[in-house]
Prior knowledge:
Layout: E1 4-11, H1 18-31, E2 35-40, H2 55-65, E3 72-74, H3 77-81, H4 89-99, E4 103-109, H5 111-114, H6 123-129, E5 131-137, E6 149-153, H7 160-165, H8 174-183, H9 187-192, H10 197-217, H11 222-231, H12 240-247, H13 262-273, H14 279-287, H15 302-313, H16 325-334, H17 336-352
Parallel strand pairs: 1-2, 1-4, 2-3, 4-5, 5-6
Helix pairs in contact: 2-8, 10-11, 10-15, 10-16, 11-14, 11-15, 12-13, 13-14, 14-15, 15-16, 15-17, 16-17
Amino acid sequence: MLKKKILLYGGSFDPVHKGHTKLLKTAIKTIKPNLTIVMPSKNAVLKSNIHTANSIDRFNMCKIAFKGFHHLKISRFEIDQAKKGPSYTYLTIRYLKKIYKNYKIYLLIGSDRISDFIQWKNYQYILKNVEVVGGIRIKNEIMPTFDGIKLNYQPIEASSQQLRINPDLKLLNKNVVYYFAAKGIYAAEQVKARISSKRFEHTLRVVDMAMEIAKAIGYKNLTQVYLSAIYHDVCKEINVNETMKIVKIHNQKLYPTIHTMHGLAASIYIKRHFFVNDKKVLSAIKGHVLGNKNWSIKKNNTLEMILYCADKLEPHRTKEDISDRIGLLKLAKKDLDLAYKTIYEETTSKYAKL
Length: 354
């Protein structure tokens, strides 16, 4: 009697992209498994970088990306196993052999992992207990010495690291993109790649300050607070030509200088390139440079005022920037409307002189 087949596909999936899904589809077509198990890892032992997305988010992104695959389950085994120590593939295989006793296990690995396979913990145990399936590029790829099934196919060239910084709908499932964009999972990585270390440090201080004010006044949507603060200066250091390419028109009545348009530019840029669609977040970022005399909590401008105040009150601001930073911070936590009005009046007078 022929044994049933299990196809195991593990990885960090940070994020999962179309290169992953194409490789798995190719393997399923070749192996014809009765069950396919996708196994997000806790931390890859042979990789120095830690995951940007937490295990829950990577698990959820896999559920989105692999939706529609027949007889497929996403497993939390390695994520949960990591609470007890490092998660090694041989332990996963040992576990599956106990659960699925009458199955033959096939282990799918991509070309990026084939080269270091012999460094895997107890790799000989793996070879004895599973059939290794390797995703081999059609050209210029050599299968290592172990005996395995070669999947000769044309891969989709995609790098999870690059896709975190530059999301591309051609290489990512759009719903995966909308998932991580809405939560700001890769926001810090995206911003850090585009501004100086000094500006990024300022950004992180604004994030902390915005969160501090938001929690003090009981603002519920902290994801909105984080997104607006982490992205607010992403276009601060671009030049005039780049700014104009983004905003198209310089309305001098609204923005006295090109420099004061970096909030507007950022709101356009993150919607276009990072797929951030929250209107409140975009509004807060757009207005954080100059503010608006009509903003108030009653008019539903709480997020805008939180970001504006946090930017002006972050710890490295001097008396030249703001006259009474500590006093105004205390006020913002008690009466955001009054604190905002006070800061707005002080800073607006400076821009009026530009």
